[in-house]
Every structure is written in structure tokens, then in C-alpha cells.
């Protein structure tokens, strides 16, 4: 029976192979372990195996987990990323407890996050979620509206704009996956050409991380391949097969 430690090793080996095939240094791609629907014990096991960055889609569940880990592992260097949709009534929780938000797709949410970030905390690290392939039911700013949103978010005092995140529709082949990810890479490069200084391109999940790495991803978000299959989804979200 495989363990979370075994799964992490296998995922890191996949990342290393993908980087080698792409001619990249494996240290340029970070692994975000997506722990949604799994309890603090699962995070503890991943921590024991050396994983330090975790992603949560469901805000209330994520905050409860953050608080539980802070109580059981005081002082542990854990980095928490909010990667799910954010409603206006949840921005205060996100601002107070998470280190990163990867799912900002409108200025109203960004403004609330900046205003509600507690004094004394480091700026919230932010990625803009872009609907790169135009899926009609998915969250994300349209590519044409991305530059204006980036300009506005970059001015907010309690946020630091770090990059882009995307969740494209599943594609049947490596090449089809890579083509969509390259669209996100093009948007990322275009913003940097305008002087934004972005360093994070968050794309790739359990089923398509190799194509994402080939297209230039700097962070892959992997849940199922690390923690196993999920048995329950407590609330609606973006595509869940991370």
C-alpha cells in the first residue's frame, strides 16, 4: 500500500523527468500539494516527507486546517495557497490566514484582500487566474482583460503580484495540453515585457504536469497523485482533478 511519502517521491520523480526532457533545472518548478478534502493528518504526513507548500480550494475548510496545523506544529514553515474561487464574504478569512492567493480574477476581490490583510503581515502573494481557453463555466479573467487587471492589482499596497494561474479544460494528448499551456506562457511573457516582473506561472495538475512543465510552468498543483482519490467534494469549485 502506497503512502503519501511514496506518492510525493513519485510525483517529484515525474517532475524531474519532465524537467530533464524540457531541458530545465528541476529546481525551477515548485510542487504545490493540494490537500482539499483531506484532513490535517494527511498534511502532517506530507510535512514529514518534506513537503512545505499546500493548496486549498475550500476556504472555510482550509482555514480550519491552517489553524489545526499551527496548533499542532507551532513554528513550522508551512506555506498556504488559496486556489479556489473567492466570494466577497470570504475575503477577510483569506486575507487573514493564507500566504498566497492564486485565484484572483476581478479587481473587487483584490481590493478587499488588500484592505483586509492584517497590519504586520507580509503582503499577500497573488496570482491572477486567467481563463486561457475560454471555458464558459470556469473562473478566470479573459485574456483581453488581463493587462488592465494586472495594472490595477499591482498598485494595491497589501498585495504582491507574482504571476498567473490557469486551469484549462482536459485535453486528450500531450501536445494538445502543451498548446493550451503555451497560451498562458505567452500571456505571462507579455506582462513581463511590460515590466511586471512576474516569476510564477502556476499550471499543471496530476494528469498534465509534464505538458505544463514543457510549456514553462514554474509551479504545478497536484492533489490526487499525492493524497489519493477524493471521496467527497463539500462545495462547488473549479475543475477538481488536480
Could you characterize the architecture of this molecule?
- α1 runs parallel beside α8, α4 packs across α5 (107-116) and α7 (174-193) packs parallel to α8 (209-215).
- The chain has nine helices and eight strands.
- The longest helix has 20 residues, at 174-193.
- The protein is α/β, with parallel strands linked by helices and 242 residues long.
- The two termini are 21 Å apart.
- Strands 7-6-5-4-3-2-1-8 form an eight-stranded parallel beta sheet.
- It is globular, with a radius of gyration of 17 Å.
- Mean pLDDT is 94; it is low at 233-241.
Q: Termini, distance in Å?
A: 21 Å
What's the Cα radius of gyration?
17 Å
Strand order, largest beta sheet = 7-6-5-4-3-2-1-8
Shape: globular
The beta-strand count equals 8
Helix count, DSSP H or I runs of 4 or more residues: 9
SSE series: HEHEHEHEHEHEHEHEH
- The residue-averaged pLDDT reads 94
- The level of helicity is 40-55%
So what's the oligomer here? single chain
The major sheet is characterized as: 8 strands, parallel
Low-confidence stretches: 233-241
Strand content range = 15-25%
Query: Structural class of the secondary elements?
Result: alpha/beta
Please give a quick description of this structure.
By secondary structure, the protein is of the alpha/beta class. Helices cover 41% and strands 16% of the residues. The model is unreliable at 233-241 (pLDDT under 50).
Key terms for this structure?
about 240 residues, alpha/beta, eight-stranded parallel β-sheet, about 40% helix
